[in-house]
Amino acid sequence: MKRAAKKIAGLVLRYKFQFDNEKDLQHGLELVFAKEAGVGFRREVPLTKADIVDFLFDDGVAVEVKVKGSWPLVLRQLLRYAECAEVKAVVLVTSKIRLGILPTLLRGKPLAVAALWKSFL
Q1: Which residues lie below 8 Å from residue 31, measured CB to CB, with a gap of 6+?
Q2: pLDDT at 118 over 60
Q3: Counting beta carbons within 10 angstroms of the beta carbon of residue 41, is it exposed (0 to 12), middle (13 to 18) or buried (19 or more)?
Q4: Tens of pLDDT along 40-67?
Q5: Model pTM greater than 0.90?
Q6: pLDDT score of 1
Q7: What CA dihedral angle connects 24, 12, 47 and 80, to 10 degrees?
Q8: Is 116 helix (H, G, I), strand (E, B) or coil?
Q9: What are phi and psi of 49, to 5 degrees?
């Protein structure tokens, strides 16, 4: 699953996205995933009564998009996703530098970060 998560993160970093908010970025990602991911996915998938992941791929890779939010809040959210049985790996797509420093495992499941600012360097 680590390979699948890194593949999705790498795919994201091959593109430059123009967005004003999280929904705009999600729309751009959806277009890229539909064209190139090679794995089926769903958008806005409820994992629990309170948690809805932005994308869930058929192979169990969950993708969360964050353009704002504090490090502790985002980490707690990702940890909750990792607790779900259907999630096998997590990818965080973010434009915030402070969110790029996260552990590589969450509850024993791989985490890959697609740090969008790196695609502009």
Answers
A1: none
A2: no
A3: buried
A4: 999 999 999 999 999 999 999 999 999 9
A5: yes
A6: 72
A7: -110
A8: helix
A9: -65, -30
Report pLDDT digits (tens) over 82-117. Answer: 999 999 999 999 988 777 678 889 999 999 999 887
Q: Kindly report the number of other CB atoms within 10 A of residue 73's CB atom.
A: 10
Radius of gyration of the chain (CA): 13
Q: Which two tokens stand for residue 91?
A: 């990818």
CB 30 within 8 A of CB 13: no
Contact 111, 89 (CB under 8 A): yes
Residue 61 token pair: 């890779």
Instruction: Give burial (CB, 10 Å; 0-12/13-18/19+) of 120.
Output: exposed
Distance in Å from the first CA to the final CA of the chain: 28
- How many whole angstroms separate alpha carbon 12 and alpha carbon 83? 24
